[in-house]
Structure formats: C-alpha cells, structure tokens
Amino acid sequence: MSGIVYLAARRGFCSGVERALRMVGEALERGPLPVYVLHEIVHNEHVVEQLKARGVRFINEPEEAGSGTLIFSAHGVSREIEERARKPGIHLIDATCPIVKSLHRKAEDFAAQGFRILLFGKKGHREIEGVLGRISSEVTVLDSEKAVREFLASLSGEERKNSRFACLSQTTLNADDVAGMRALLASSLAHLEINADVCFATRDRQNAVKELAEKCEFIIIVGSAGSSNSKRLCETAASCGARAILLSDPRKFDVSLLKGVTTVGVSSGASAPEELVSELLEILKREKFELVKS
C-alpha cells in the first residue's frame, strides 16, 4: 500500500473543551479533593480514562458527590441540577462552554418575552437537556427537515400568521442541516426570530472536512461514537461523496480498509485529543502513506 494523507488544518479540541479540561486540571492541583465531574466532561472515552487515572471521579447524579469539588461538564446543566448540587462541603465549578451558556441566555430571554421556542437538536443530548432545563415554557425540539415539515403541518393558518416563534440550535449539529431547517421555518412563519446556528468551531471543522472530501477517497474522523460533533464530521464527509469512518481508537484501525486507496483525509472531533491523531498518522506512515497538511 502507498498513498497520500491530507490532515485537516482545523481539527481537534475546540476552545470550550480546552477550557473545561484546564478547569479540571486546576481543580486537581488546588482542591478541595476529591474532584467529581457530573457526567463525561467531554464526549471522549480516552479523555475520561486519562482523568480517571489522575483521580477524577465521574458521577451521574449530583447527590453522589461527597465533600470536595464538583464540576459541571462542558455541555451544561439544568437549573434543577444546579440547585441539587449546591450543598455544604461542595465547591462547585461550572465548566459549561461559554457558547452553550450563551444559548442558555438566549432561550431564557426568548421565553421571558413569550416566544414559542423551536430548538434544533437531538433529544437526549446533554446540551439539549441543559437548555430544556433552563426554562419553564414549552420547547419544541426538531432534529431534521422532516421533523420541521411535520411541525409546520401541525400548525393552523392563524398560528403560522400570528404566533411569535424563535429558533435556536444545539451547537454541534451539521451546519448545512441547520441552514435547511432555518429556511423551511422562515418560508412558513410570519414572525420568526432566528438565532439558530452551530458554533464557529463546529462550522470550521465541517468546512475543513469538505475541503478534504474534494481530494480524498477515504476520510477518517478520529472521535468517539458518543460525540455529536464527531459524528457530524463523518456525515459531512459522506455527504460530499467520500467514504468515511469514525474511529475512536487508532489501535483498532483495520488497515485493510486502505486497500485500493491512494488518498486519505484525517480529521478529529472537538473532543478528540491530538495524540490519537498522531497515533493514526504513525499507522498510516507504516503503510507507506505520506503526510501532506491540508
């Protein structure tokens, strides 16, 4: 086997992930110990295992934390979780991504103004659950253009004409999907406030994968199956016509997938550490693939 590897220039940890991991590291140094993290700090099992090895305790409910430090993950939490976490002996640290925090504020503002909120996202995702838990008014979660069409079909003509809607988005969705859903709503609702977009890091990484897909037959996205942004990168590559896989552990990469391939593209999700990319590149190098930065 032999060929060329193109490495996406924009890949890997985003600023929100770097910030969250830095906060965990500082808590381990300063205390009070032990350090608990509510849910995965970011959606990457490699990162989680590294932190466990350093003594971090991951929990599913705030009540599981004893005296020490409790950190909220980068995905954000509901008001109820915040209140349950406030108890004597616990030092709270909020590692919610600032862009997700901004999404919380927008949702709260629109709800206070009486808008009907339409939220693009995946039900059950931590970020979506956090947003839903910030406001008491009803929120409609839409995850596809099909879901948007079904929602619009459920509205009366009077609702389309007179009701005030505001649309927001989970920060890690496919940017093209979000644009399509926005356009459908804008063409059908008379009063629509649009604040729905993915974060800049998500958009940058998706655009970089599109660039890879223009010159690569096969694209490997390093990231976890539980990472929304990593899965969207894989979908982006496939939508551009490239064969694409999501790889959580480079050590398990099946080199037979390279058979007949001469151009490989490599990128990584916003929660995937660069060391995993380096491991993959070493494997490709052994298979006689020469690295060219994209």
Give a quick set of tags describing it.
single chain, 294 residues, alpha/beta, Cobalt-precorrin-4 Transmethylase, domain 1, Rossmann fold, 3 domains, five-stranded parallel sheet, four-stranded parallel sheet, 13 strands
Topology readout:
Layout: E1 3-7, H1 15-30, E2 35-38, H2 45-53, E3 57-59, E4 68-72, H3 79-85, E5 90-94, H4 98-112, E6 116-120, H5 126-132, E7 139-142, H6 145-154, H7 157-162, E8 164-169, H8 175-186, E9 191-194, H9 200-213, E10 218-222, H10 228-239, E11 243-247, E12 263-268, H11 274-286, E13 289-293
Parallel strand pairs: 1-12, 1-13, 2-3, 2-4, 4-5, 6-7, 6-8, 8-9, 10-11, 10-12
Helix pairs in contact: 6-8, 9-10
In short:
The chain is of the alpha/beta class and 294 residues long. The protein has helices at residues 15-30, 45-53, 79-85, 98-112, 126-132, 145-154, 157-162, 175-186, 200-213, 228-239, 274-286; strands at residues 3-7, 35-38, 57-59, 68-72, 90-94, 116-120, 139-142, 164-169, 191-194, 218-222, 243-247, 263-268, 289-293. It folds into 3 domains: 3-12 and 201-293, 4-hydroxy-3-methylbut-2-enyl diphosphate reductase, catalytic domain (Cobalt-precorrin-4 Transmethylase, domain 1), CATH 3.40.1010; 15-97, Rossmann fold; 99-194, Cobalt-precorrin-4 Transmethylase, domain 1.
